[in-house]
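Sorry, explain these tokens?

***
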Amino acid sequence: MEMLQKELKMNLKKHIDGLIVRYPLLEDIREDMIRAYFVLEASYENGGKLLTAGNGGSAADAGHIAAELMKRFHLPRPLSQEYTKKLLDADPVRGAYLAEQLEQPLTAVALDGQGPLATAYGNDVSWHGVFAQQLLGLGRDGDVFLAISTSGNSQNVIYAAVAAKALGMPVIALTGADGGQLASLAGTVVRAPADETDKVQELHLPIYHCWCRMLEERFFGV
């Protein structure tokens, strides 16, 4: 853990430290949270994106993560000069408006948001494969799949993890204390130290909020 801590820049380490001050029971998974952050950072550094999915409350978390990454969370995210110029060339008036309003994203897709596709595939083929099918269409080598399951045993998320690995995507599992079957498939497992679903979910939110803060600081901080 000491080596991971040294690799984490001070301006990013403050977010992990602050998280653990607020949630002391997360100290035991500090190293796993940092390791997961580095997986996300490496993907974005190399032009990758995040794909994420879960069921029920975890589906809401998947959408929440994507929302925080696709627009500003805390810091301004100005457009590049190159893209600003292209907007103005496309339409001087509307382009100028967009140049002021648009924000640089950290590309993230919540697979739960693809309702028509998911229900069509689930109804026609298999509910176990609803996320795996989307990963096959959207995922690329170097993207990351964040698999969210409080039990670690959600079958559609587990099958998606298999599909992601086959595509060359690192898999991060965000689970409860047990980790379930998902733990054996993921390269990085972050086990929230709780067993009851609601208590696990109460810890998942500050964990992924911390990742979002760190990523935004890394790519958009001064």
User: Anything to note?
Assistant: The beta strands are 50-53, 108-110, 144-148, 171-175, 188-191. The first helix runs from residue 2 to 7. The first strand starts at residue 50 and ends at 53.
